[in-house]
C-alpha cells in the first residue's frame, strides 16, 4: 500500500478550516462537560437496559466506544438544543453507529419488513425493533417536515449499511455509484433536519431555509467526515468501501486523484455553505456555523479519528500547511480535548451489573415478592412446591414469627434476606432439583 499522502491531507484540512472560518467558541469548558455528562448518563442507562442488551448483542467494549464517540459528536455540534434532545439524539445516532459496525446479514429478518410495518406488527430485525421504540423520543422534538426527514434518512442509512455488507465498490464506469451509496449511508438529511427543534424554530416560517440547510448538509457533513476520517480508514480492512476508494474503482483513477476529487468537492461545499446562509435568518445562520465548527472540533479531538497522530507528525514538519494545521489542532484541543474520565463516571457494563445486583436484591428482600422469588430458584413440580411451602411455613412458625409478617409488606429487608438464605441452603442440602 502507498504511504499516506500527509502533505495533501494537511493542505486540504487547512483549506477547510480557513473556508469555514473555524473558531470554536460554542461552550465554556464547564458547559461542555455538563452537557457531556447529562447526555452520556441518559444514553448509557438506555443501552444498559435488559431489552437493549438482549436484542442488540453488541460487543460491550465496542458499544462503549461508540456511545462515547456519538455523545461527543452530538454535544459538540448540536450546541443550542436542549440537554434532553442531546441525550435523545445521542441514543439514536449510537444505534446508527452500532449498525454501521455490524457485519450481520439483514436479509432473513427483512423479508416481511413492509407487511409488518403496514400491519403494525413488531419488526423482525432487532435493530429496527429498538430504533422504532426510541424514535418517538426523538420525533417529539420536531415538526412533521423535519420528522419525516429523520425517518426517511434513517431508513436510507439501513439500506446503505446493507449494501456495504457486500464490500462492493461499484463497477468500473458507474460514476454515480459512489455518490449514491455515500448519500444514503451518510445520514446527511437526518443530521440536517435534526438541527431545527420545534421549540426554537418554526419549520413553516423557515421552510425554505430549513429545506436548503438539509440539502447543503447532505454533502457537506459526509464529505467533511470522509476527509477527516481518511487517515483512520486508509489501511483499515473494514473500511474498504469508503467514498475515496469507490472513486478509485468506478473512475479508474489513483488513490491520490480520488483524494483530490474529495478535497475539491469538500472545499466547494464549504464555500457554498458559508455563502448561501450569509444573509439568512440570524438564528439559523448561527446554528449552522456552530454546527460546522463543533463538528470539526469533534473530528480533530475524538480518538476514533486518530488525528492526534497527524498533529504530532505535523509538528515535526517544516511546511506552511503543517504549521497551520498544528495551530488549528491546538486551538481545537484547547476547547474540545476533554478526558473521558471527566464525564464518563460509569460504563454501560457497570450499569448492567448494577441493575442485575438491584434486581437480585429486590428478589431477596422485596416483601410479598420474596416467596415467589425463592421458588423461582428451583425447578420444582407443583406437588413438590406444595410440600416445600408447607415445610417452610412450619419452619418459620417454629421461629415464632407471625404469618402476617411472613407474607405481608411489613417484613423487613433483613428478615427476608436471612430467611431466604436459610431456606435456600436447606433446599440445596436436600438436592431438590427434579422437574418430572
Automatic annotation (TrEMBL):
One of its GO terms (molecular function) is carbon-oxygen lyase activity, acting on phosphates. Belongs to the trichodiene synthase family. Keywords: Lyase. This is Trichodiene synthase.
